[in-house]
Amino acid sequence: MFHVAYETFGPPILVSTDKENVMTGFGFPEFFVFVLLFVVAFVIPALVVRFKRDQLRHRERMVALEKGVALPSLPADVHSDTPRVYWLRGLIWLFTGIALTIFLIGLAATSERPNTLEDRLWHAQDLRQHGASDEMVKNYLDHPESRPGLPVGLALVGLIPIGVGLAYIIFYLGEKKQATAPV
Protein backbone atom coordinates (compact mmCIF):
# COMPACT_ATOMS: atom_id res chain seq x y z
CA MET A 1 0.00 0.00 0.00
CA PHE A 2 2.77 2.46 0.88
CA HIS A 3 5.24 3.42 -1.79
CA VAL A 4 8.98 3.72 -1.66
CA ALA A 5 10.29 7.29 -1.45
CA TYR A 6 11.96 6.97 -4.87
CA GLU A 7 8.65 6.07 -6.46
CA THR A 8 6.91 8.99 -4.82
CA PHE A 9 9.59 11.60 -5.38
CA GLY A 10 11.30 10.12 -8.43
CA PRO A 11 10.94 11.33 -12.00
CA PRO A 12 7.34 11.11 -13.26
CA ILE A 13 8.33 9.33 -16.49
CA LEU A 14 8.74 5.88 -14.91
CA VAL A 15 5.80 4.78 -12.77
CA SER A 16 5.93 1.49 -10.94
CA THR A 17 2.79 -0.64 -10.69
CA ASP A 18 2.20 -3.99 -9.07
CA LYS A 19 2.54 -5.79 -12.40
CA GLU A 20 5.16 -3.97 -14.48
CA ASN A 21 6.87 -0.68 -15.24
CA VAL A 22 4.92 1.61 -17.52
CA MET A 23 6.50 4.34 -19.65
CA THR A 24 4.37 7.37 -20.35
CA GLY A 25 3.99 8.98 -23.78
CA PHE A 26 5.97 11.75 -25.43
CA GLY A 27 5.09 14.81 -23.35
CA PHE A 28 6.08 18.44 -23.08
CA PRO A 29 9.42 17.89 -21.26
CA GLU A 30 10.60 15.51 -23.97
CA PHE A 31 9.44 17.92 -26.69
CA PHE A 32 11.26 20.80 -24.97
CA VAL A 33 14.49 18.77 -24.78
CA PHE A 34 14.13 17.85 -28.47
CA VAL A 35 13.76 21.52 -29.48
CA LEU A 36 16.67 22.53 -27.25
CA LEU A 37 18.91 19.87 -28.81
CA PHE A 38 17.90 21.02 -32.28
CA VAL A 39 18.81 24.61 -31.44
CA VAL A 40 22.14 23.60 -29.95
CA ALA A 41 23.02 21.26 -32.83
CA PHE A 42 21.98 23.38 -35.83
CA VAL A 43 20.99 26.97 -35.09
CA ILE A 44 23.84 28.06 -32.82
CA PRO A 45 26.64 26.68 -35.08
CA ALA A 46 25.04 28.39 -38.10
CA LEU A 47 24.96 31.71 -36.26
CA VAL A 48 28.57 31.32 -35.13
CA VAL A 49 29.75 30.55 -38.69
CA ARG A 50 27.88 33.57 -40.08
CA PHE A 51 29.33 35.83 -37.38
CA LYS A 52 32.88 34.64 -38.06
CA ARG A 53 32.41 35.18 -41.82
CA ASP A 54 31.15 38.73 -41.27
CA GLN A 55 33.99 39.40 -38.85
CA LEU A 56 36.58 38.25 -41.41
CA ARG A 57 34.92 40.36 -44.12
CA HIS A 58 35.04 43.41 -41.85
CA ARG A 59 38.70 42.80 -40.99
CA GLU A 60 39.56 42.46 -44.69
CA ARG A 61 37.84 45.75 -45.52
CA MET A 62 39.56 47.56 -42.62
CA VAL A 63 42.99 46.34 -43.78
CA ALA A 64 42.19 47.55 -47.32
CA LEU A 65 41.24 51.00 -45.95
CA GLU A 66 44.43 51.25 -43.89
CA LYS A 67 46.61 50.40 -46.91
CA GLY A 68 44.70 52.78 -49.18
CA VAL A 69 43.74 49.99 -51.58
CA ALA A 70 40.35 49.89 -53.26
CA LEU A 71 37.76 48.15 -51.14
CA PRO A 72 36.97 44.59 -52.16
CA SER A 73 33.49 44.20 -53.54
CA LEU A 74 30.86 42.75 -51.29
CA PRO A 75 29.62 39.26 -52.12
CA ALA A 76 26.17 38.83 -53.61
CA ASP A 77 24.72 37.44 -50.37
CA VAL A 78 25.23 40.80 -48.63
CA HIS A 79 22.96 42.58 -51.14
CA SER A 80 20.26 39.91 -50.98
CA ASP A 81 17.42 42.04 -49.56
CA THR A 82 15.53 42.23 -52.83
CA PRO A 83 11.75 41.85 -52.70
CA ARG A 84 12.01 38.21 -53.84
CA VAL A 85 13.91 37.40 -50.63
CA TYR A 86 10.91 38.58 -48.61
CA TRP A 87 8.66 36.28 -50.64
CA LEU A 88 10.97 33.34 -49.92
CA ARG A 89 11.24 34.17 -46.21
CA GLY A 90 7.47 34.53 -46.01
CA LEU A 91 6.90 31.13 -47.59
CA ILE A 92 9.46 29.49 -45.32
CA TRP A 93 7.91 30.97 -42.17
CA LEU A 94 4.36 30.26 -43.33
CA PHE A 95 4.92 26.60 -44.15
CA THR A 96 7.06 26.09 -41.04
CA GLY A 97 4.16 27.39 -38.97
CA ILE A 98 1.68 25.16 -40.76
CA ALA A 99 3.95 22.13 -40.28
CA LEU A 100 4.47 22.97 -36.59
CA THR A 101 0.73 23.33 -36.04
CA ILE A 102 -0.02 20.00 -37.73
CA PHE A 103 2.79 18.30 -35.78
CA LEU A 104 1.57 19.61 -32.42
CA ILE A 105 -2.06 18.70 -33.17
CA GLY A 106 -0.95 15.18 -34.12
CA LEU A 107 1.23 14.91 -31.03
CA ALA A 108 -1.59 16.08 -28.77
CA ALA A 109 -4.05 13.68 -30.40
CA THR A 110 -1.80 10.65 -29.98
CA SER A 111 -0.11 11.26 -26.64
CA GLU A 112 -1.67 9.84 -23.51
CA ARG A 113 -0.37 9.32 -20.03
CA PRO A 114 -1.81 7.30 -17.17
CA ASN A 115 -3.46 9.09 -14.29
CA THR A 116 -1.12 9.46 -11.35
CA LEU A 117 -1.76 7.52 -8.18
CA GLU A 118 -2.64 10.77 -6.44
CA ASP A 119 -5.31 11.59 -9.03
CA ARG A 120 -6.76 8.08 -8.88
CA LEU A 121 -6.92 8.11 -5.07
CA TRP A 122 -8.46 11.57 -5.03
CA HIS A 123 -11.09 10.49 -7.55
CA ALA A 124 -11.78 7.28 -5.56
CA GLN A 125 -12.26 9.35 -2.40
CA ASP A 126 -14.59 11.65 -4.34
CA LEU A 127 -16.57 8.64 -5.55
CA ARG A 128 -16.91 7.38 -1.94
CA GLN A 129 -18.12 10.78 -0.75
CA HIS A 130 -20.76 10.86 -3.45
CA GLY A 131 -22.19 7.49 -2.48
CA ALA A 132 -20.41 5.03 -4.77
CA SER A 133 -20.20 1.46 -3.54
CA ASP A 134 -16.91 -0.11 -2.52
CA GLU A 135 -17.13 -2.38 -5.57
CA MET A 136 -17.37 0.63 -7.92
CA VAL A 137 -14.39 2.31 -6.23
CA LYS A 138 -12.33 -0.90 -6.40
CA ASN A 139 -13.27 -1.31 -10.07
CA TYR A 140 -12.15 2.26 -10.76
CA LEU A 141 -8.82 1.75 -8.99
CA ASP A 142 -8.19 -1.57 -10.78
CA HIS A 143 -8.84 -0.09 -14.27
CA PRO A 144 -7.10 3.28 -14.40
CA GLU A 145 -7.93 5.52 -17.32
CA SER A 146 -5.41 7.59 -19.19
CA ARG A 147 -5.55 11.32 -19.83
CA PRO A 148 -4.27 13.44 -22.71
CA GLY A 149 -0.54 14.12 -22.63
CA LEU A 150 -0.43 17.49 -24.40
CA PRO A 151 -3.23 20.01 -24.67
CA VAL A 152 -4.45 20.63 -28.22
CA GLY A 153 -4.22 24.37 -27.52
CA LEU A 154 -0.44 24.05 -27.58
CA ALA A 155 -0.76 23.82 -31.38
CA LEU A 156 -1.61 27.54 -31.35
CA VAL A 157 2.13 28.13 -30.98
CA GLY A 158 2.24 27.46 -34.73
CA LEU A 159 0.29 30.68 -35.32
CA ILE A 160 3.41 32.70 -34.48
CA PRO A 161 5.50 31.61 -37.49
CA ILE A 162 2.36 31.67 -39.65
CA GLY A 163 1.87 35.34 -38.71
CA VAL A 164 5.52 36.17 -39.39
CA GLY A 165 5.30 34.45 -42.78
CA LEU A 166 2.14 36.32 -43.71
CA ALA A 167 3.79 39.60 -42.67
CA TYR A 168 6.75 38.90 -44.99
CA ILE A 169 4.39 38.00 -47.85
CA ILE A 170 2.32 41.15 -47.32
CA PHE A 171 5.51 43.23 -47.24
CA TYR A 172 6.67 41.57 -50.46
CA LEU A 173 3.37 42.36 -52.18
CA GLY A 174 3.63 45.99 -51.04
CA GLU A 175 7.21 46.31 -52.30
CA LYS A 176 6.24 44.71 -55.59
CA LYS A 177 3.42 47.25 -56.03
CA GLN A 178 5.77 50.14 -55.26
CA ALA A 179 8.33 48.86 -57.77
CA THR A 180 5.74 48.66 -60.58
CA ALA A 181 3.93 51.91 -59.72
CA PRO A 182 4.75 54.91 -61.98
CA VAL A 183 6.68 57.67 -60.26
Structure explained in plain terms:
By secondary structure, this protein is mainly alpha-helical. The chain contains 6 helices and 4 strands; from the N terminus they run αββααβααβα. The protein has a domain at 1-77. Helix content is 64%, strand content 7%. A two-stranded antiparallel ribbon has the order 1-2. Strands 3-4 form a two-stranded antiparallel ribbon. Strand 1 (14-16) and strand 2 (21-23) form a beta hairpin. Helix 3 (83-110) packs antiparallel against helix 6 (159-180) and helix 4 runs antiparallel to helix 5. It is elongated, with a radius of gyration of 28 Å.
Q: Give the averaged pLDDT, no decimals.
A: 81
H/I helix tally: 6
Indicate the proportion of strand residues. 5-15%
Cα distance spanning the termini: 84 Å
Over all CA atoms, what is the radius of gyration?
28 Å
Low-confidence stretches: none
Taken in chain order, the helices and strands follow as HEEHHEHHEH
Helix content: 55-70%
- Using DSSP, what is the number of strands? 4
Report the major sheet. Answer: 2 strands, antiparallel
Looking across the biggest beta sheet, what order are the strands in?
1-2
Envelope shape = elongated
Given the helix and strand composition, which structural class is it? mainly alpha
